[in-house]
């Protein structure tokens, strides 16, 4: 930074929204104001507060029944001199607000033939009376602000994420989950540009007419009509080569259902295309290749190799995208004849009763349908084996396809189904892992048949009776990173090839649940790696995190002789100024220690020191660290529920109260709530302690959380005890 250059520093923080903020836009009036939208379903107008150099909330506008995903400002007009605010939501609706009222002027409802039939993802202004919207239903719509849908544009084959208008305020561009940028002129798709990335998340049109797009591969690309700004022939050739080497998963449905045996050969490319962006599939030996017709260049451009093209369709062999997530099934449920149908997403690793219950809650449907919907799910998924969906799927928000320290990315060595705490073991309401036994009964009523809403709610959340662990991993990626960083280690710290083989063996037997015990030599090498410098130690910590659950490893590191050294080293990694990856993996390792008798004994002996150091990490913004901290507290709560140690319970309650003040992530919140419920169950002294800390008032706000439902359900059960 240049000497004397101004630096940005925090000006103010604006609490108000109860859930994460999804969109911000500058407002035309009052000067300096802005608008925010959130998952809490509200839109808020913030105006400058001059005396305090901050902002004051002028309006909290409500109109959506699900979270608000996008916002734009409609310019001023004679009728609305201060302009209007348009918002799009996951309720499929668009709300139009004035600056004078918290209630919407108009609600552009989503229903067939007139409005969007899925989540609205983007808005763009054409004039003071018209705007455009795009949505997960793969349509673009032109609206009048009064609610009349003037025109519908189709072209994309998957979710449309972003829309931006050209300076002429007529033409526009869109980007989508179908790997494409589409340019719309005179109401038609004039050009389709495929990119070597699955998700094209965002776009904007610059003042000079150039188009900027951002994609899931982390690259921003600029496209232009100007000869002066066009890339060199070498750069364009390199881009086309990258595009041709991309792979297109047939399961996305963007290319339709594909049967490779019925596709024509390469001679099919001798025929001229009929329209811009037309896609053609050809068989080249055992491969299936996708080509797109370019009108301007008069040729077919290869856009990738198609994978998974076996003749099966989404329903039988692939994942189906719904609201940005992959599911094995997305059913259409008709509850009333002639009424609207509802989408019910389901994975074969899910519990059908819990899925049915959440479906009815989400759509505000009569609970009398619980048995019927659950039976429908069971009948229509018979014969399916539990297992991970697509282990190679890369989460667009986390980069799940790459190695992330301590992440729960899928692999063939991980447990096949999703536990609500860890993603590791199958979660069945009332199963032994949740500490209750309810075999053969309705998980929501405790009986074999549905009871009315007035019936007693069965508590499936607490007291928790077993430790929660972090189990999942990708051994190949961990070892790859370990070997890469080993090359940067100093000579005295560097591992030999034989050492690396020993670590590979210990990781293999742990992940494969082998009955073989790690050798003393393997454990010595692991300890050597765990003592690497902080900059490179995280893959070794990840191996330790997995290994410590093994009985012999747990005993080796956590026994009375070695335990103090082991815990002291890991606690040193919890330094708030240290590396977040090390903090996270140290916390997760401590959580996994609880599964062994020696580990649990060590954790209890180190409780005061460990929790006092761990709580120092509460102020960061890393949600994974918050989840690990909450899990550590939960595991201590499980132990204290068994022996009623009031001193230990008091420290845990203090940690819960402190962390609840700052944590934002709802999974971390849920684990803290389960810990709280476990601590106060069957203990009047613990109830009084919790009340004295004001925990009851702290958690009331979570009783209204709609998603995930487990947060509000758990909260209400705790409030009943308090």
From TrEMBL:
One Gene Ontology molecular-function label: ubiquitin binding
UniProt cross-references to PROSITE patterns, sorted A to Z: PFU, PUL, WD_REPEATS_2, WD_REPEATS_REGION
Listed under GO biological process in this entry are: proteasome-mediated ubiquitin-dependent protein catabolic process; ubiquitin recycling
The PFU domain covers which part of the protein?
292-391
Q: What does the UniProt keyword field contain?
A: Cytoplasm, Repeat, WD repeat
Question: Which Pfam families does the annotation name?
Answer: PFU, PUL, WD40
Q: Which GO terms describe its cellular component?
A: cytoplasm; nucleus
Where is the protein situated, by its record's location annotation?
A: Cytoplasm
UniProt cross-references to PANTHER family, sorted A to Z: PHOSPHOLIPASE A-2-ACTIVATING PROTEIN (PTHR19849)
Q: What is this protein called?
A: Phospholipase A2 activating protein
Q: Which residues form the PUL domain?
A: 460-721
Family classification: Belongs to the WD repeat PLAP family.
Question: What are the ranges of the WD repeats?
Answer: 153-185
Does the keyword field hold Protease?
no
Q: Which SUPFAM superfamilies match?
A: WD40 repeat-like (SSF50978)
Q: Which Gene3D superfamilies match?
A: Leucine-rich Repeat Variant, PFU (PLAA family ubiquitin binding), C-terminal domain, YVTN repeat-like/Quinoprotein amine dehydrogenase
Gene source species? Phocoena sinus
């Amino acid at each position: 930074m240049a000497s004397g250059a101004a630096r940005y520093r925090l000006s103010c923080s604006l609490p108000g929204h109860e859930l994460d903020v999804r969109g911000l836009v500058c407002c035309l009036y009052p000067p300096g104001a802005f608008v925010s939208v959130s998952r809490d379903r509200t839109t808020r107008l913030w105006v400058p507060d001059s005396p305090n150099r901050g902002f004051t909330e002028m309006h909290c506008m409500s109109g959506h029944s699900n979270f608000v995903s996008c916002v734009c400002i409609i310019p001023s007009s004679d009728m609305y001199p201060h302009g209007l605010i348009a918002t799009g939501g996951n309720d499929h609706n668009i709300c139009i607000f004035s600056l004078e009222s918290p209630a919407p002027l108009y609600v552009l409802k989503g229903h067939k033939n007139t409005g969007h039939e899925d989540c609205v993802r983007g808005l763009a202004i054409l004039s003071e009376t018209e705007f455009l919207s795009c949505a997960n239903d793969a349509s673009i719509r032109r609206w009048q602000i009064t609610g009349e849908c003037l025109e519908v544009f189709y072209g994309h084959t998957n979710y449309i994420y972003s829309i931006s208008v050209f300076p002429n305020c007529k033409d526009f561009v869109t980007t989508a989950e179908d790997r494409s940028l589409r340019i719309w002129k005179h109401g038609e798709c004039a050009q389709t540009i495929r990119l070597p990335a699955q998700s094209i998340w965002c776009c904007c049109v610059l003042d000079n007419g150039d188009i900027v797009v951002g994609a899931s591969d982390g690259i921003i690309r600029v496209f232009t009509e100007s000869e002066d700004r066009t890339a060199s022939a070498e750069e364009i050739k390199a881009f086309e080569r990258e595009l041709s080497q991309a792979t297109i998963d047939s399961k996305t449905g963007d290319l339709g259902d594909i049967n490779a045996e019925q596709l024509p050969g390469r001679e099919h490319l001798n025929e001229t295309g009929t329209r811009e962006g037309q896609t053609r599939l050809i068989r080249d030996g055992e491969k299936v290749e996708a080509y797109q017709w370019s009108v301007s260049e008069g040729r077919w451009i290869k856009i990738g190799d198609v994978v998974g093209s076996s003749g099966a369709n989404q329903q039988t062999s692939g994942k189906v995208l719904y609201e940005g997530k992959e599911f094995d099934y997305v059913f259409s449920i008709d509850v009333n004849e002639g009424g609207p149908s509802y989408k019910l997403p389901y994975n074969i690793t899910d519990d059908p009763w819990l899925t049915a219950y959440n479906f009815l809650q989400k759509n505000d449907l009569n609970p009398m349908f619980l048995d019927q919907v659950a039976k429908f799910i069971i009948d229509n998924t018979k014969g399916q084996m539990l297992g991970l969906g697509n282990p190679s799927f890369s989460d667009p928000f986390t980069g799940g396809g790459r190695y992330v320290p301590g992440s729960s990315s899928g692999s063939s060595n991980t447990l096949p189904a999703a536990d609500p705490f860890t993603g590791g073991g199958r979660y069945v309401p009332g199963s032994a892992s949740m500490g209750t036994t309810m075999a053969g009964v309705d998980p929501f009523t405790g009986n074999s048949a549905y009871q009315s809403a007035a019936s007693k709610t069965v508590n499936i959340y607490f007291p928790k009776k077993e430790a929660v662990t972090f189990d999942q991993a990708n051994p190949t990626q961990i070892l790859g990173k370990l070997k890469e960083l080993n090359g940067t280690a100093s000579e005295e710290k560097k591992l030999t090839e034989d050492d690396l083989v020993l670590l590979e063996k210990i990781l293999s037997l742990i992940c494969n649940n082998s009955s073989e015990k790690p050798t003393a030599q393997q454990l010595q090498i692991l300890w050597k790696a765990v003592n690497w410098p902080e900059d490179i130690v995280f893959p070794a910590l990840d191996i330790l995190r997995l290994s410590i659950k093994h009985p012999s490893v747990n005993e080796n590191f956590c026994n009375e002789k070695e335990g103090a050294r082991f815990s002291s080293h890991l606690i040193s990694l919890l330094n708030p100024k240290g590396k977040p990856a090390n903090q996270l993996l140290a916390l997760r390792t401590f959580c996994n220690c609880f599964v062994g008798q020696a580990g649990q004994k060590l954790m209890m002996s180190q409780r005061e020191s460990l929790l006092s150091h761990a709580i120092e990490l509460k102020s960061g913004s890393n949600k994974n660290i918050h989840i690990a901290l909450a899990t550590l507290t939960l595991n201590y709560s499980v132990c204290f529920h068994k022996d009623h140690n009031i001193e230990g319970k008091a420290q845990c309650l203090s940690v819960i109260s402190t962390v609840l003040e700052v944590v934002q992530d709802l999974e971390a919140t849920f684990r803290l709530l389960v810990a709280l419920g476990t601590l106060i169950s069957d203990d009047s002294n613990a109830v009084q302690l919790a009340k004295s800390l004001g925990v009851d008032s702290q958690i009331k706000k979570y009783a209204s959380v709609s998603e995930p439902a487990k947060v509000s359900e758990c909260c209400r059960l705790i409030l009943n005890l308090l």
